[in-house]
Description:
With about 150 residues, the chain is α/β, with parallel strands linked by helices. It is about 45% helix and about 20% strand. The chain has a 4-stranded parallel β-sheet with strand order 2-1-3-4, with helices on both faces. Pathway: Cofactor biosynthesis; riboflavin biosynthesis; riboflavin from 2-hydroxy-3-oxobutyl phosphate and 5-amino-6-(D-ribitylamino)uracil: step 1/2.
Amino acid sequence: MKGPELAELSKTSGQNIKVLIVHARWNAYIIKRLVESTTASLLQRYGVQEANLTIRSVPGSWELPMALKQDIQNYDVAIAIGVLIKGETMHFEYISQNVSAGLMQIQLESGKPVIFGVLTVLTQEQAEQRAGIHGRDHAPDWAAAAVEMAIAK
Ligand code: DLZ
């Protein structure tokens, strides 16, 4: 199975961090699953407190960088979640490239880590695979990356 080697984190690693999840609403059933899985990992595996977790939604992936720019200073780390499907998105490359660059720019400018939870895939089936509907769920990796980056100071 592909995936990162995880850092050594415990059930209390995330207990003092403030986390912002911003997610798009396009491809909503896949997004819903990714957000639920990310949240479950943060709370149950790493002890993030519910009161320290904020979830905000935006229309589409294009809006993710702006929402993060507006809110990130109030958090230790943010996770941006979106699903961009090439087969259904005429301007897929344009959106993907700009969203990626925008998220990178925000983390470097703000000094706050932004975890890249944007699936850029060729088909809906690939998105379902990466969301764990029938394949390896990527969301727990995003939660682990968020906790690791938030406490690495
Ligand atoms: C317009 C559009 C299209 C065609 N496809 C997607 C997609 O697959 N995933 C996604 O997150 N957003 C999509 N959008 C919406 C844009 O991201 C954006 O919300 C609108 O263009 C409004 O700025």
